[in-house]
Amino acid sequence: MSKLAVRPEEDGQVEAVVREIAQAARDASYHMGLADGAARDAALRSAAAAIRQKATDILAENAKDMAFAAKKGLNAAMQDRLLLTPDRIEAMAQGLEQVAALPDPVGRTLAEWERPNGMKIARVSVPLGVIGIIYESRPNVTADAGSLCLKSGNAAILRGGSESLHSSTIIVECLQAGLKAAGLPVKAVQAIPTRDRAAVGAMLRMADLIDIIVPRGGKSLIERVMAESRIPVIAHLEGNCHVYVHEKADPEMARKVVLNAKMRRTGVCGAAESLLVDRKVAAAQIPGIVDALAAAGCEVRGDEAARSVDPRVVPATDEDWDTEYLDAIISLKVVDGLAAAIDHVNRHGSHHTDAIVTDDQDAADRFLTRVDSAIVLHNASTQFADGGEFGMGAEIGISTGKLHARGPVGAEQLTSFKYVVRGSGQTRP
Amino acid sequence: MSKLAVRPEEDGQVEAVVREIAQAARDASYHMGLADGAARDAALRSAAAAIRQKATDILAENAKDMAFAAKKGLNAAMQDRLLLTPDRIEAMAQGLEQVAALPDPVGRTLAEWERPNGMKIARVSVPLGVIGIIYESRPNVTADAGSLCLKSGNAAILRGGSESLHSSTIIVECLQAGLKAAGLPVKAVQAIPTRDRAAVGAMLRMADLIDIIVPRGGKSLIERVMAESRIPVIAHLEGNCHVYVHEKADPEMARKVVLNAKMRRTGVCGAAESLLVDRKVAAAQIPGIVDALAAAGCEVRGDEAARSVDPRVVPATDEDWDTEYLDAIISLKVVDGLAAAIDHVNRHGSHHTDAIVTDDQDAADRFLTRVDSAIVLHNASTQFADGGEFGMGAEIGISTGKLHARGPVGAEQLTSFKYVVRGSGQTRP
Questions:
Q1: Is ipTM > 0.85 here?
Q2: Which among B34, B372, B418 is the nearest to A373, CB-wise?
Q3: Cβ distance B379 to B250 under 8 Å?
């Protein structure tokens, strides 16, 4: 931990520290890419054991972070995210074991074919290389993100929020203990050992050593990373998710899906933020849905048409259509049919997750085809936007970009591929 | 063509022109993404007909470009690439028809599964959106790259070299005629109507309207694009490709494969630039291979060990191991076994295409697994590094990056995907 002494003004030194880490990660990544899946899984299981064994030490390190955070005046929600408890530590250990149990994403034959000249071509999955993860002061992300990188044969450079430095450091030590036990290079997981924010900038410039950056956190963090990075970024900026209640929607299903999409958990990116109701059924559908939302403590902000149907709806401004509340608030707009709903979603949404409720298969198909989002659902809650719910195991986030990974980013999405060609002396005419 | 009047110093105006084009491309991309594959194919066939019909006009426009290029003092090789002939125009038309005949890359179900709660999830291919192509003064690239973008349901913004402005413009008009005939938006293919280089910078900044940039050309062009772009880039910087002659290589096959890999065409990115020969067979293999290369007019630059075996080998410097000659020159290094060969390729190669010649299956498997390149071959020529030779139809280039596309980039690689979820009222517990 001696490098913790690096001071903010010594940017050159921060750069050198980060470069040394990145170079070690690059070297480790070659070994990881060639290791057996069984060895990578053994490392994850050993890491889980180390976390359980070191639970008392982890709590002690976390207490240092909590004291620092309290002194710094971190708000209660952020302190809660930083806090580790015996239950949360056990959950981290179990998470590592779950990732170990996933199928190996490396070395899969994605496609294979033979050419008329007899050459056999296979497309085979390989690790990406070195992944930089930049996140907030959430110690559990250290274990989650680190484990997905290792599972997929990559090396990880972890940069958590400054308040979680001690907690993250000891969790990384547990991951490294797992690597060591499995005979893998310990530098395949490293934490940045300084609170200096210059370290983030240094990471984002190291395109020669880091293959991809995954920011995980709030909008300002992700915007900074996307603006500064010279390295490709997998990120989602926000989830302004919609539920559209079509004219042929079953009222009971509409109420149930909207309530779940909005209120199951309001702080997740798959939470619905905007409700669209077809004008033809506005009077029939809105009161029942507002009943359910109001009973759950949700504020509904609607346009004139919605308010004329239900006086509990408070006025919305134009800004509401573009707002991700992450809170018990939903915007409500009455729309003139399917095309208008699709247009509204594509214009105001964030290309994350959007749902239609309808008994009309044709309308559903049009919505699913025409809404330009990573995840589109028919008659199901937007809260299913989650790698685990998709059956993909753990996820590192949900990408709203269209390149490489879109939607839930799990271990499989942290791989690339190569073409393996087997011949018998073929030359090209 | 009135916008040709834009002058270099009026950067603000160039920016506005490019933004107008990019916005029109974005609008057109929504329509393209929803169009039937049959309509997109019809557009490509109509464009081929338009190119044949306008052949005389195309030759006339090309003559203007050739005159400009001659006045500018462009070298002979570049003038040859710029030149169109009746044969080359017919080849462009046939290229469009070949792309039309490829399978539709859009709307494919890439995977589908059902969850225990009854939700059906499908991963379905969709277009990327708006693709910016930046290339040199090669009019045929206008047709090739434009057609792959249209095939994959994208909108294309084409920025060819300034000397090809008139040729590119009329070829784009033919593509637009095809789009119009098929009832598709003509703005799905547009050329940047100015020679001003500021237009390239403007494109590279328009991350809100352009989804991906594909540079096609020499190293300096691609380096500039990669350094400046705020938009993800699919590119390959160079192809420093290797052939490794293993100790168990059949001499006849080794000679044949090396000769083809180097000399079939020296100017392509899949041409071999470096030959590695195992020390154990250096004396046995090198003279025969040098015989073949020398007879074909190839200079061989080797290390001490190679020169001691064959006096026709001239001295190599350290720089040679990292050089892509694109010419009738090859570097030759004697290596101590398989591991040293793999290490040399990973250190000095460009992660493009590398081959091993051997009768030892284990050695081949190790090479194929451990060499970190987009394409790895056993007993076949590196000149097969080509989308057409892979059976993927036309290609827009070969990517040496690991994100999104790696290896040949054809129509399929110009797509993304979305998750389509069909439920019956499921909510998340």
A1: yes
A2: B418
A3: no
